[in-house]
């Protein structure tokens, strides 16, 4: 028996510390994007190596989130959160000191490992602090605001630090932030809630982590070597076999990493399917947009970062309004409209040109994208943890972060492959900047199509229904959480 992690009697202070932890994780996802050209020349990265500076973090993060969530449930969310913050800070420091591409990519992978402990543990503590009801809805609004704003703020901070002191400082700043948050989390203390201690599923964790690694490696390598390359096909085959082994392991393990009961709770399955599709566009947006601003429009890192402020502000506004809008119009209508709004912004962005400007081609779409992204993220997160008992809070937090992050890694790999192919073909008969822009337009256009399809799928998967009650949740609380009152 053990005590389940909870929080102090000062919920706002605890929420602020937990939100800061999530902000730091999201910051690290995008802070490198604006500095990729400088990092590439600084440590001698190849084209594929440049992508792996982003993917190494995203892959380790996504592949190990389930393990981090399960560890939070078995060992205590506060303990796992503190350990994750310490590891994350140390890896960030190592990344800033790296002098070779191998050391940098390895440090980014360890950063992802730390983040995989931070995100589900912090979300589990938020769920424990705020039971189902309006309070949890508002807390998830804050969660969504810092998550979305963290991605945009990373581009801004990356631009400022790169131009002022050089690219190593983007990692030093993240390390300083992680250690400061580590101190702030000291305000969180264990509650008296008790659950049973179970066995950790090491074999399940290993097989699913290796499967996801093989899958994203294959997608990333296909851009350079082609989809019919023997190594790429072998990696796809390996991923398929490992996922099959994972399913068999989960059926036989007494305490599986991903217990079937989780998918029969509330609308966890629907929320995670939609989150995976939504996430497939998220990371790619913060990858391609800064590249277009720098490589095509010729903006400096600082100007590129400042150009993300409207996007960040719109994300924060959308996240703040999400609960209120959902309460008035219903969760399904809110998510559908938000996804279509973001899709409209991306479709607008797909009309960029090499002769365009920030004001005419980027500003307007950024605001639309930010509003839709902020609202959709909050409501999809709420949907994905709806009805989950406290004993599985960490696992639910790990699962929703896994689907978003792995979806993002796969989406980035696919979109960079397609954009690169379009650019290569266009370069045979167009100037370089026009060819680059053609690739970026393709990425934004496909992203818009994915979100439009996700909006239609939302109407099918996320229809309002009665959920299995959480012992702590009343029908009134359930309606408040889902926005279907």
Automatic annotation (TrEMBL):
Its chief place of residence is: membrane
The record's listing under InterPro entries reads:
EmrB-like, MFS, MFS_dom, MFS_trans_sf
Compartment(s) of residence? Cell membrane
- Write out the entry's keywords from A to Z: Antibiotic resistance, Cell membrane, Membrane, Signal, Transmembrane, Transmembrane helix, Transport
Name of a matching Pfam family: MFS_1
Residue ranges spanning the membrane: these are 52-68, 80-99, 105-127, 139-161, 167-188, 200-220, 232-249, 270-292, 298-317, 329-350, 362-385, 406-427, 439-462
What residues does the Major facilitator superfamily (MFS) profile domain cover? 14-466
| Membrane topology category | Multi-pass membrane protein
Cross-referenced SUPFAM superfamilies, in alphabetical order?
MFS general substrate transporter
Q: Which domain of life, per UniProt?
A: Bacteria
What residue stretch is flagged as signal peptide? Answer: 1-19
The name on file for this protein is DHA2 family efflux MFS transporter permease subunit
Q: Origin organism of this chain?
A: Streptomyces caledonius
Q: Give the organism's phylogenetic lineage.
A: Bacteria, Bacillati, Actinomycetota, Actinomycetes, Kitasatosporales
């Amino acid at each position: 028996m053990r005590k389940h992690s909870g929080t102090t009697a000062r919920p706002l202070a605890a929420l602020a510390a937990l939100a800061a932890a999530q902000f730091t994780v999201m910051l690290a996802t995008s802070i490198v994007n604006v500095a990729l050209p400088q990092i590439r020349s600084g440590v001698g990265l190849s084209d594929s190596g440049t992508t792996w500076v982003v993917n190494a973090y995203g892959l380790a993060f996504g592949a190990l989130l389930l393990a981090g969530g399960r560890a939070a449930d078995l060992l205590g969310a506060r303990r796992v959160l503190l350990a994750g913050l310490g590891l994350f800070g140390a890896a960030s420091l190592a990344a800033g000191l790296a002098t070779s591409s191998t050391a940098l990519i390895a440090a980014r992978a360890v950063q992802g490992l730390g983040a995989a402990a931070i995100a589900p543990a912090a979300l589990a503590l938020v769920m424990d602090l705020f039971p189902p009801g309006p309070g949890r809805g508002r807390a998830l609004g804050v969660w969504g605001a810092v998550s979305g704003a963290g991605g945009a703020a990373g581009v801004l901070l990356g631009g400022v630090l790169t131009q002022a002191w050089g690219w190593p400082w983007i990692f030093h700043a993240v390390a300083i932030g992680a250690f400061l948050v580590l101190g702030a989390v000291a305000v969180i203390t264990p509650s008296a809630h008790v659950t049973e201690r179970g066995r950790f599923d090491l074999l399940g964790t290993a097989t699913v982590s290796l499967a996801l690694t093989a899958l994203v490696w294959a997608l990333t390598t296909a851009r350079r070597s082609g989809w019919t390359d023997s190594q790429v096909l072998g990696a796809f085959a390996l991923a398929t076999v490992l996922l099959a082994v994972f399913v068999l392991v989960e059926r036989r393990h007494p305490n599986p990493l991903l217990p079937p009961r989780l998918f029969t709770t509330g609308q966890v399955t629907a929320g995670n399917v939609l989150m995976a599709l939504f996430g497939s566009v998220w990371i790619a947006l913060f990858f391609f947009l800064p590249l277009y601003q720098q490589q095509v429009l010729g903006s400096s890192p600082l100007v590129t970062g400042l150009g993300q402020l409207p996007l960040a502000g719109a994300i924060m506004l959308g996240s703040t309004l999400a609960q209120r809008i959902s309460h008035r119009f219903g969760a399904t209508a809110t998510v559908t409209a938000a996804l279509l709004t973001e899709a409209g912004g991306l479709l607008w962005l797909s009309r960029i040109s090499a002769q365009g400007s920030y004001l005419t081609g980027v500003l307007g779409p950024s605001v639309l994208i930010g509003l839709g992204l902020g609202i959709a993220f909050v409501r999809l997160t709420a949907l994905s943890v709806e009805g989950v008992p406290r004993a599985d809070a960490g696992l639910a937090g790990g699962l929703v972060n896994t689907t978003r992050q792995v979806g993002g890694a796969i989406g980035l790999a696919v979109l960079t492959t397609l954009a690169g192919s379009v650019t290569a073909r266009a370069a045979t008969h167009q100037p370089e900047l026009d060819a680059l822009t053609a690739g970026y337009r393709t990425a934004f256009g496909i992203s818009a199509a994915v979100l439009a399809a996700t909006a239609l799928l939302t109407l099918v998967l996320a229809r309002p229904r009665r959920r299995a009650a959480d012992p702590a949740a009343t029908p009134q609380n359930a309606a408040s959480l889902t926005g279907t009152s």
